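Reply to thread "Modeling small-molecule complexes from scratch"

Following up on the discussion above, here's a worked example others can learn from. I took a protein sequence and the SMILES for NAP and predicted the complex. Inputs first:
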Amino acid sequence: MNYYIITGTSKGIGKALAEALLQEEQNYVYGVSRNCSITHSRYHHQPLNLSDIVALENNLHKVFPVLKNAERIVLINNAGVVGEVAYMGSQATHNFSYVFDVNVMAPAILINTFLSAYHTENCPKIILNISSGAGKRPVDGWSAYCASKAALDMLSLTVQQEQLLLNSNVRVFSISPGVVDTAMQDHIRDLEESQFSEVEKFKKYKNDGALRPPEEVAERMKRFLENYQQYKDVVFRIESIEQH
Ligand SMILES: NC(=O)c1ccc[n+]([C@@H]2O[C@H](COP(=O)([O-])OP(=O)(O)OC[C@H]3O[C@@H](n4cnc5c(N)ncnc54)[C@H](OP(=O)(O)O)[C@@H]3O)[C@@H](O)[C@H]2O)c1
């Protein structure tokens, strides 16, 4: 049986990915988010607020259960937030800790626990972190988000390097999904130009039909997970994943 532990399964990319994986009989999905919107016999939901680090630490044993007859165990750190969009100098200071808790601290804690909890499992183990192009270029107003995704990329690179040195059966990836038609993009289009100079460009993406449907992104990610051995890089964009 293949086990997938996925954060942010209540909507957007995480929900589409969980539903795509559940199409295969051998796949079991353990989802984590504040809300639950999937009902399926092979889906288990753990309600958790990933910005509440104490609650996360107290509930780690529920996120990583004992898994029987595992042929593959996958952790997908998908949950993410843009947070308050504002220039540095005019944003609430707690915004940085909020964005970093969800986008960096929670993934780091989950990776650390995943590696120790399933240390003795001999099956292949995969850690897939959902990053962003915003971690590779500066976007005005998004300093917390850009910095958090850059941190997630470096966390991924470092963990993969350690696992290589340990000669383990763990692979780590950090993939940018492109611009996807989800609630996160709705939030971005609602911003004022004074908060974020690129807002018109993002509105145009929507009007031009340039946003990817989350289901298409999920299918690509599913395909990637089926063929992950052929990918050598840790950090890459979704365009590198072959389409059907
Ligand atoms: N959409 C894009 O264009 C785009 C582009 C680049 C990268 N990404 C990345 O792709 C990932 C998924 O984004 P999306 O567009 O699918 O976003 P979305 O539609 O806003 O969904 C975000 C998911 O994360 C969960 N989440 C947010 N805050 C949480 C918290 N405090 N505790 C637990 N779960 C939380 C939400 O669940 P609850 O609200 O139920 O808790 C939801 O299931 C993110 O990491 C994002 O940075 C997206």
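What I'd highlight from this example: The chain has one domain: 2-179+213-239. DSSP finds eight helices and seven strands in the chain. Questions welcome below.
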